[in-house]
Amino acid sequence: MYAIIEDGGRQQRVSTGDRILIDREISKETKSISFDQVLLVGGEGSPKIGQPILVGATVTADVLGLAKGEKLITIKQKRRKGYHRKYGHRQHYTAVRITAINA
Fold it and tell me: Which of 9, 18, 35, 72 is most deeply packed, by most CB within 10 A?
C-alpha cells in the first residue's frame, strides 16, 4: 500500500517503512506526526483519488531527528572585473519514518 502526501508544497510517494525528509522543524518532545494532506491511496484494488485531498485519510510517521540536505554551492562573478564570490548552503530537514497509512 502506498500514498501520495503533500507537505510543505511538495508531493511525495510514501509507503510503510519509508524514511523521508520533510522541510519542517518539529520540537524535540514530539515522537510522531500525522499528515492529513493525502492526495492518493493505492496498492490494493483500485486507487482512491482525492479531489484535491482524501477526506479522513491520514499517514502517520515517527520522528527520527534532524538531518541536513546536500551542500549547494553558489558562485557569483563579473567578467573582466576580478570579482568572484562563492557561497555554500545546507538546508535543515527533519527525518521521519512512515509507520501507517489509514485510508
Answer: 35
| Beta carbons of 2 and 15 less than 8 angstroms apart | yes
Under 8 Å between Cβ of 63 and 26: yes
**Which residue is it, cell 530537514?**
93
Distance CA 12, CA 25 (A): 18
Global pTM reads: 0.83
List, in order, residues 6 or more apart from 103 with CB less than 8 Å away.
1, 3, 41, 48, 54, 57
- Whole-number Å distance between alpha carbons of 16 and 14: 7
State the total domains in the chain: 1
> Which domain, by its residues, includes 6?
2-102
pLDDT, tens only, 62-101? 999 999 999 999 999 999 999 999 999 999 999 999 999 9
Does residue 45 register a pLDDT over 90?
A: no
